[in-house]
Amino acid sequence: MTIVTARPNDDLPCSVRQLLPEFYQSFLSKAAKERKPSPIRGLYPLEAKPGVISFLAGKPNDAMFPFQSFSFTATCPSKPGESTTVSLSGSDLAEGLQYGATAGLPRLTDWFMGLQERSHGRGRGEGWRLSVGSGSQDLIWKAVQALVDEGDPVLIESPVYAGVIPMFKALHCEEHEVETDAQGVCSSSLRSILENWPVGKPKPRIFYTVPYGCNPTGMTATIERRREVLSLAREHNFLILEDDPYFYLYFGKAERPPSYFKLELEQPEVGRVLRFDSLSKILSAGMRIGFVSGPKPILDVMDLHTATVNLQPSSLAQSIALALLEQWGYDDFYAHTKAVSEFYREKRDVFEKAMRTHLDGLAEWSTPEAGMFFWFKLLLNPDSDEDGDSKELIEKKAYEGGVLALPGAVFLPNGRKTAYVRAAFSLSTEEQVNEALERLRVVILKERGRVNS
């Protein structure tokens, strides 16, 4: 396999070898290669030339927008218990009320670029850029559309976030499940799949993974596993889709492992990681703001998709987020995310204490170190080698008993039977958690009696 790289940029403090733009042509889907720039949005940058009088875009005159200002109160992370007032008016509000750049408001994308430098050590000028989307789910779908053709083989960790399964099903993909355990994705499983791949058959071009607080398992991949996955990506020529909405919800005792986006700096060249971040878990789920960082040729194609489907992420939502983030600055942002992770750590501890109280001997689990989910196996038939199936018990019997959770089968691409269950611990109070798990205990005991009778 030939790796095409650019020469290091000698103007950078630390030279980093990058994959050249033409390298990505073989990764793009047929649809992506056929996308053309919007005849209007593609010319937006020309409006910035001084002295130009633009008749280009059908932008409404903002003088007719009725909104004059917005003001809201937010917490002050560096001063617990205090709040700060954030205002949006004048040109900042005008920008938020008008059509904007396809890739996101320039000041917001610049702020996020700075965040990636601080959180992942990725400098500008390394061949990557950033686009904002209407939540990371929006961006993941566009990435899949850009990189996957109908019927393609794809690599997916399993269990996997249920929200991406329909994406691959819609394209009739061959879904090759990579096993996971308490230490995250099993790189040995990934290696086995690739080394035993049929000769002459094209290998998968992408691998999808949630490396921190995986939804549904709650597991965080170790640094050793991540390094092995990156090496396999280079050896077998695939891209890593790093879906990471729980990066800032890490509360493990050990230091947080570096992201794939950061770790690929250890590789001979960078450009195999497409990273997805989200504000949903740390600022607001309803604002629908996510951002993707990765190779410019792929993001360019994704932006072409945006320009023809939804034009852009919401300018107003972006302006509100930008006003808060600029007022906070990076220090207060990190102080806020630290408080968020501590909040969910306490929620995790409450849930696990209740699990020990009510389900000891009836279920088994590994303690999550990030995110907001518990993934536990029901011990429905302890006298049998068969694990059993949680689907009917959770969907019907537990619900009739007053508990609503998800059976593990919905997180398995092939939908096979499993005794596992996913429970979210983000919203329930300690009293509700104990009551729900006591109800579940009763249901499990009844089921055990039925199975053994």
What does this structure look like?
With 453 residues, the chain is an alpha/beta fold. It is 36% helix and 16% strand. The strands form three sheets. It has an eight-stranded mixed β-sheet with strand order 3-10-9-8-7-4-5-6, sandwiched between helices. It has a four-stranded antiparallel β-sheet with strand order 11-12-14-13, covered by helices on one side. Strands 1-2 form a two-stranded antiparallel ribbon. The termini are far apart.
Summarize the structure.
The chain has 453 residues and is an alpha/beta fold.
Low-pLDDT sequence parts? 9-13
**Biggest sheet: strands side by side, in what order?**
3-10-9-8-7-4-5-6
Q: Per DSSP, what share of the residues sits in E-state strands of 2 or more residues?
A: 15-25%
- Structural class, by secondary structure, is alpha/beta
Strand count: 14
The whole-angstrom Rg is 24 Å
Q: Give the overall average pLDDT.
A: 93
| Main sheet: strands, sense, barrel | 8 strands, mixed
Count of helical regions: 12
Helix content: 25-40%
Oligomer kind? single chain
Shape: globular
H/E element string? HEEHHEHEHEEHEHEHEEHHEEHEEH
Distance between the termini: 60 Å
Task: Give short descriptive properties of this protein.
single chain; alpha/beta; 8-stranded mixed beta sheet; 16% strand
Please specify the SSE layout and strand pairing.
Elements: H1 30-34, E1 69-75, E2 83-89, H2 90-97, H3 106-120, E3 128-133, H4 136-147, E4 153-158, H5 165-170, E5 174-181, E6 184-185, H6 187-195, E7 206-209, H7 223-236, E8 239-243, H8 260-263, E9 273-278, E10 290-295, H9 296-309, H10 315-359, E11 363-365, E12 373-378, H11 391-400, E13 406-407, E14 420-424, H12 430-452
Parallel strand pairs: 4-5, 4-7, 7-8, 8-9
Antiparallel strand pairs: 1-2, 3-10, 5-6, 9-10, 11-12, 12-14, 13-14
Helix pairs in contact: 2-10, 3-10, 4-9, 6-7, 10-12
